[in-house]
């Protein structure tokens, strides 16, 4: 989503704004590191959606925009007159993307959704964790992130489609569907072979060796007797005899340091890697080469850095990022430049509390 | 890509084809459940890329296609005359998406890449696992999947851009960048506050309570993301003394005093069954959920409602099912899916219909081994 937003706007009820602004420590100045990480290239317009002029402003913005993205409980924006049906009447070319916990309709559609819950309900937690231990969450909100990526791709596809049809449409993205869709082979095992999944630690059910300490037995480990061993010749056999094989490989790996093993595996064609801490990740030369540390100047906090864009293009470089906005930092700018409001109109709106402008910018 | 009437062609060296065809058990007939799960709506053309006619066929396909997606080690396809520079000369409108382990250039670019390794190198494993235990992998290849999603979005963006410029371009997607990019707030904590990450089990470093709790008969996950929701949690658990407690009033305080608070909540959750707790939380506005097994996932009424079980008929295996599409659109329904192809199932069809080859040409190519056709279709 980050790379598509040349001038996305964030709109919030005046007050505290987005919950994630308070998710910390750590805080960097007034802002949570959490909020800073995922909000660059956005502008913040602080508007009161309970104020009739507030919803009118959103409607006017929708009339001149290409895309609306919202994550309210299904039905909430309809009640406020800002649902797809209403806004598409104002702008038939509008691409309206709804992101929810479970979907726009259905038995669970009114349940609030968070990554953690979706991860649990969709089977992701059930399959993540040590072999003989309790389920755990992926260490970062992969369900949220996958949903954002699905939404981005869907919005792009809808804009492409609009080139042909001249019309916008409504997109339904939700955490449950994203994560269930991502179950891929785990789901296929169950749907086609009736096989329930379980936790495997760092290992893989259907590929041996595919885990933290090991790979195809090769001369690197100096275990030549395993190479032609009848019990380990094909993946199918290695899966069948996994306990034996992994026992032998594990014993051998314990004998040397990670750095030594990495050196020995170089040039072998076998995928290997260390389990890097976050500091090690951001010291990695390839990470730096890929431009994955993106620095920028924040109006109150000063220098901040966020992970860079995951994708690079040969014929356009991502424009320089603008920092995550303070709440209501661009209210006046958006009203004036995007909606052509006069200074008097803007002053009236601020006095009535329909909108607010952050002083610190 | 399916929505836009683009049909995807898988091209393989005749022989075993895609590694994942052999990743099992379980196998369903001749096909691994693994392969079946991610290959619908594709056609399979089996072509020998070491044969000069083989690379010529790929070049001819590139001339009439919109998008090429490849996951060879960087440099490999250039050597075969099928790199971006070569194919874009034949088709300047071509969008060419390369997917690799680490990127097209750089110190690691020639290392083979797999999800598991990328997950380790990118910090994902370091942050996943029990609080006092070893790192683990996410139970499904989320790094692979995220990279695929990034690639899809990037291809769509490139096609949009092409509407304006009339030209294609080269896209660099890789597992390392995708997963590091997805570190989001974990990365931000380190890059902006120097804070190293650690494992939290089901919990969250910056939000309390936001984790799984053991119940009498299983687990329940609760996600109280703000102060209002925390009050509701206390009400449902019948622990009113926690509501105005000075140590737990804001998220910041709850994070500071997490051990105390979580101890009290854990004791209470142990006293009832998961189903009872779920019932009590209904209508409270607090996000809660059970930790579902895969069977429970596919019995869930909302999952069915969202069309997340997609059935189709496979030519040799018969009825198969895969998880349905994650996204739905108001103005076009995804067309009925075609099953994952057998290797070389559509060689003749693609050569004949897409490249207008004559029957004689096709027969010659098959005799010389440049291509092969699967008999079973």
Automatic annotation (TrEMBL), chain A:
The keyword Transmembrane does not apply. Belongs to the CoA-transferase III family. One of its GO terms (cellular component) is mitochondrion. One of its GO terms (molecular function) is succinate-hydroxymethylglutarate CoA-transferase activity. Keywords: Transferase. This is Succinyl-CoA:glutarate-CoA transferase. It comes from Sphaeramia orbicularis. The lineage of its organism: Eukaryota, Metazoa, Chordata, Craniata, Vertebrata. The keyword Transferase applies. InterPro entries: CoA-transferase_III_domain, CoA-Trfase_fam_III, CoA-Trfase_III_dom_1_sf. Coiled coil: none annotated. SUPFAM superfamilies: CoA-transferase family III (CaiB/BaiF).
Automatic annotation (TrEMBL), chain B:
GO terms for cellular component: mitochondrion. One of its GO terms (molecular function) is succinate-hydroxymethylglutarate CoA-transferase activity. Residues 1-17 form the signal peptide. InterPro entries: CoA-transferase_III_domain, CoA-Trfase_fam_III, CoA-Trfase_III_dom_1_sf. This is Succinyl-CoA:glutarate-CoA transferase. Belongs to the CoA-transferase III family. Keywords: Signal, Transferase. It comes from the Eukaryota. The keyword Transmembrane helix does not apply. The gene is sugct. Pfam families: CoA_transf_3. PANTHER family: SUCCINATE--HYDROXYMETHYLGLUTARATE COA-TRANSFERASE (PTHR48207:SF3). The keyword RNA-binding does not apply.
